[in-house]
Amino acid sequence: MANTSDIRKGLCIKYNHDIFKIIEFLHVKPGKGPAFVRTKLKSVTTGKVIDNTFSAGHKIDDVRVETRSYQYLYADGDTFHFMNTDDYNQISLQKSSLDSPDLLKEGEVVTILFNTEDSMPLSVDMPASVILEVTHTEPGVKGNTATNATKPATVETGARINVPLFINEGDKIKVETEKGTYQERVKE
């Protein structure tokens, strides 16, 4: 058993007969009244995100997890196939258990959290950023780079990302996986 002071991003907890992963939290200490923790929880079974507020000192039932590195192999519809980098065992996960499946490139190494009680996969943690090649975008207009204007671009995984006007087809860009936003152009 843990309490609200142990809440952190990525913690898996049992709540309402389901297992949830904390994706956001905020400790609030109002001037009047007791402190509380405002959280955003994602169900690892359904992928549904809910908001919940825990009062300070509330006991939470945390789930012991184990992390393992897996390499993404391929997708078959809504089923994603991964291979353990240590023993080469393969597992399949549904698209709903991934945070940003449209940014996942074949061969990418991810971290999968497993429940230690029953060895069931709970969620997939992507790397903080991925490098993807732009496959389609409109050409930029020369001299129109003084503002922070952006244009839509399609990357090799099929995801659509807003990029600055100077990005062209064939450029490699670094994309933040948590928000799915452009970070920088990558020189080779």
Could you explain the architecture of this structure?
It is a single chain. The chain is mainly β and 188 residues long. It folds into 3 domains: 2-62, Roll (SH3 type barrels), CATH 2.30.30.30; 65-125, Beta Barrel (OB fold (Dihydrolipoamide Acetyltransferase, E2P)), CATH 2.40.50.140; 129-186, OB fold (Dihydrolipoamide Acetyltransferase, E2P) (Beta Barrel). Helices cover 0% and strands 54% of the residues. A hairpin with a 5-residue loop joins β8 and β9. The termini are far apart.
**Name given to the CATH architecture of the largest domain:** Roll
State the CATH topology of the largest domain: SH3 type barrels
CA radius of gyration: 20 Å
β content, as a range? over 45%
* SSE pattern: EEEEEEEEEEEEEEEE
Annotation, overall tally of beta strands: 16
Search tags:
single chain, 188 residues, mainly beta, SH3 type barrels, OB fold (Dihydrolipoamide Acetyltransferase, E2P), 3 domains, six-stranded antiparallel beta sheet, five-stranded antiparallel beta sheet, flat
List strands and helices in order, with pairings.
Blueprint: E1 2-3, E2 12-15, E3 18-28, E4 36-43, E5 49-55, E6 59-62, E7 65-76, E8 79-84, E9 90-94, E10 109-115, E11 121-125, E12 129-137, E13 150-155, E14 160-164, E15 172-176, E16 181-186
GO molecular function, one term: translation elongation factor activity
Subcellular location: Cytoplasm
Pathway: Protein biosynthesis; polypeptide chain elongation
